[in-house]
Each structure stands twice: as C-alpha cells, then as structure tokens.
Amino acid sequence: MRIFLQDRPVSGVVKIYGDDYIHLTRSLRVGCGEEITFVHGGTDFFGVVTAITKDCLEAKITAEKLAESEPNLKITLFQAMPKFDKFEQIIEKSVELGVTQIVPFLSERCVSRPKNDKSQRWQKISESAAKQSGRGIIPEVGRIISFKEAVEQMKTFDLPMFFYETGGERMTAEMVENKKTAAVMIGAEGGFSLDESRRAEAAGMKILTLGKRILRCETAPVAAVSILMYLTGEG
Amino acid sequence: MRIFLQDRPVSGVVKIYGDDYIHLTRSLRVGCGEEITFVHGGTDFFGVVTAITKDCLEAKITAEKLAESEPNLKITLFQAMPKFDKFEQIIEKSVELGVTQIVPFLSERCVSRPKNDKSQRWQKISESAAKQSGRGIIPEVGRIISFKEAVEQMKTFDLPMFFYETGGERMTAEMVENKKTAAVMIGAEGGFSLDESRRAEAAGMKILTLGKRILRCETAPVAAVSILMYLTGEG
After folding, report:
1. Same domain for A61 and A78?
2. Residues B194-226: pLDDT tens digits?
3. pLDDT at B188 over 70
4. Disulfide-capable partner of A97 in A225, B7, B84, B120 (CB 3.0 to 4.6 Å)?
C-alpha cells in the first residue's frame, strides 16, 4: 500500500496519525515488521513498521527512490466545467492516467456553474485515485477560473493544446518531443464556441482533433491524455 | 440527428413508427421539409420529411454515403466482467471511441457473475452511445462467454491483443499496419492471473502494457481503444 505524507520524512522515521493510522491499523491490520511505501513529492520511501501505539504508527525508512510511475512530461488538464458527476469521473481517470494538475474553468457553453466550493471533495478524489494507481504525487485540483485566465495560464506551457470538436490537427510524437510541460484544454458538454477557438489559436495553442467520432466531454480528456502519454513513450 | 434503421431503406422511402416516431415528432418537434440522417449498416441516408401522420413519419431519401465515422480497423473489445455500473461505462465509452463489438467474458478474478440477462439493457446503452457519437453502426454487445471461448474467438482476429497489468510490449503503429480486425482483451477488477496470461500467449496473442501506472478496469479499455484508434490514423 502507498501512504502519502504531508512532509518529507526527517531522520529516517515516519509517524502516522489520524485517518491513515486508522486505515492502516484497523482496516488493513498492519503489524510491526510489515512494509509500507510512503510517498512524498514524487519519491517513494520504503518503511518497516517499528511501533504501533493507541494513536500512532511508527516506521523506519529503509530506502528511498524516485517514484517510477511519475511521467517525465507534466500534463495539466484545463477542463471546462461539466456536470459534477462527470467532473469527478474526469478527475479520477486523468489522475490514473498520469496528469500532474487539473484546472477547472468556465467556458461560454458551460451549463454547470457551481456556487458551493467543492475543492476539498475534488482533492479527495484525486488523492484516492493517486493511491490506487501508484502515483508519486497527489495531483492538485485547482480552483475554478475563467476561460480568459485559463488561456493566460496555458501560455506558460511548452505545449498548449486545444481540442476542438469541429476538427484540427492530429497529435504527433514530434509535437511532444523534448517538451517538459503540456496543457490540454477540453470543452464542456456543448464544446467550444468559434470565438473561443479563435482566441485559443491567437494565444498560440495548437488546435487539435481526437478523430471523426464525437466524444462526450468526460471521454475526450481520457482519450487525449491516453494518447499523449503514449506519445511520450510512457503510456 | 441520426436515426438507426432496422432495415435498409427500400425504393427511397423511410417510415418511422414507435419510439423513434415519438422522439422525432414530440421531443424534437421535427416538421415536414426538415432533414434527418438515417443510418443502416455503416451507411448514412439523408432524408427529407414528407409526411407526418398520427403514428408514422415518412421521409424521402435524397442521398446516401458510407458513414465517415466508421473506422477501417474493426475493433472487438473482449472485456472481463466487472461490476455492472463499470461495464455500462465501458460500453458507452468504447462505442463512442469506435469499437465494432463488445464481448463480455468471465475470467478467474471476476467478482461479478451475473445471473440475470442484461443484454437488452446493454444493447440500449450501445445504441444511445452510437447515436450520440455519430456512429454508422450500433455495436453489438455479445452474450457472456468463458475465458476459454474468448481466447478461441480471438484467434480469428488479425491482431489479438492481451493487456496485462504486470507489463508487456508497447503498442506500435507497425502492429496495426494493414490489419483489418483487432481484438482487445482487458481484465476485470483484479486483472488476469499468470495462468491466463500464459494461455493468452500460447494462443498467439500479443502481451501488451498500457504504461507504468495501474489503471482501473474501466479506464484500461478506454485508454487501449483511444491509442489503437490513434495508431490507425483515425483517433
């Protein structure tokens, strides 16, 4: 099992309290001498349980190495806000597939315009998917921003990609070569307006297609990230 | 909108009754002179509504052409039976992405072993996804077969692919070159046993990987089909 740590282990000892403590000792019935992988900032720390008290599990770190599951290309998904259950599916699946960060934004055709702050819930979904898929980080789900802000932020990426349902170029291996950061922009249920696609193009984004079939807004990011990871040689 | 026909239109006229009639006339309020695309067996038939009576909509076919959205590579997904809600997600998304057929089967680690026949419900999900994504056919969801039967069936495909969570080769563009039919085999929640992977290999399947991260059983087929379609030049 993998336990994500808030802080880097100091002097080779890890102490676990709270929810993770309860999960490890009660659900998984971990005992002294057993091995646990702790994860912090893309590094795996291999630990052996040395003591269990009534509110704390203590482990000694025996080795550490960079988490193999972390891709070299850091992908941020800019996702126009769909209905909530779809957004939760998108978080789960894109974290499994290896995105580094998810940024929800509002586009012209967004029907879902949330009033309540759901960021804690979304972060939990990301954490749970990161654990399940063996990630070395917990991808951050950002706050909801505007289309304009999203376009501004995307300018800072090596490879800003705009997926347009009416067509565009195909992704290629050459596009991703030597790139460190990629940003993938995907529309909500109704896709993007022509005006939005023009603004994306004017901002220097590549206008791309995912093929001839029309994908639902929760399928498109999964397809895009799968292909992108494949093209980096990691998918 | 796209309406799937049971039979090929005869002498240039289409008559629509029942659910499709109600959907067209009541929900979509289609009137005389409006255009509708009818679909049968991978061909799109363009029609103009000529008459609407109290139980029938009649249209004249003005043109027909092969549905552009149909991929040249026919992909059959052999999916080990996961929990029902996951299987329904898999049907929906793989139909959107372009599979031709879905065959559920039982593997060693399948937890879900359905007693009731759900095939009608599954076929409906396929139909609805086919309409939504602009497909030229409604992919068939087969009956549940055994692992052994699935392996036998897969031998008849040009490219039988076994996706193994413990690792394998990467898919390549060369693999799919000049292939007409591909079969994608994906495990259920617990993946495949070593014995199953050996039997797959012995049957001539390629043992393949989807990368370093562990994908949920409902994410793996979406990733595999996305990449496969991409490699054919159609994704």
Report:
1. no
2. 999 999 999 999 999 998 888 999 999 999 999
3. yes
4. A225
Find the CATH number of the domain harbouring B202.
3.40.1280.10
What is the span of the domain harbouring residue B155? 74-231
Test A213 with B132 for CB contact under 8 angstroms: no
Work out the percent of chain B whose per-residue pLDDT is above 90: 80
Say how many residues make up chain B: 235
Q: Is the ipTM of this complex over 0.90?
A: no
Nearest-Å Rg of the Cα atoms of chain A is: 20
| pTM score | 0.86
Write down which residue in A66, A85, A120 finishes a domain. Answer: A66
Are B122 and B204 part of one and the same domain?
yes
| Structural domains in chain B (count) | 2
Out of B96, B171, B216, closest to residue A96 by CB = B216
| Average pLDDT score over residue span B76-80 | 98
Query: Mind listing the pLDDT tens digit for each residue in B31-49?
Result: 999 999 999 988 999 999 9
pLDDT tens digits, A60-108: 999 999 888 888 899 999 999 999 899 999 999 999 999 999 999 999 9
Q: Do B114 and B7 have their domain in common?
A: no
B215: nearest Cα among A15, A126, A133, A17: A133
Degrees, nearest 5: CA angle A195-A200-A204:
145
Quick: pLDDT tens for B110-160. 987 777 788 999 999 999 999 989 999 999 999 999 999 999 999 999 999
Question: Are A48 and A143 found together in one domain?
Answer: no
Contacts of B98 in chain A (CB under 8 A): 211, 213
Residue A57: CATH number of its domain: 2.40.240.20
3-class secondary-structure state, position A23: helix
The closest alpha carbon to B219, from B186, B196, B194, belongs to B186
pLDDT of residue A31: 92
Q: Say what the pLDDT of residue B235 is.
A: 60
Partner-chain contact A96 B215, CB within 8 Å: yes
Contacts of A214 in chain B (CB under 8 A): 96, 132-134
- Chains A, B: CB contacts under 8 A, how many? 94
Give the pLDDT of residue A2: 82
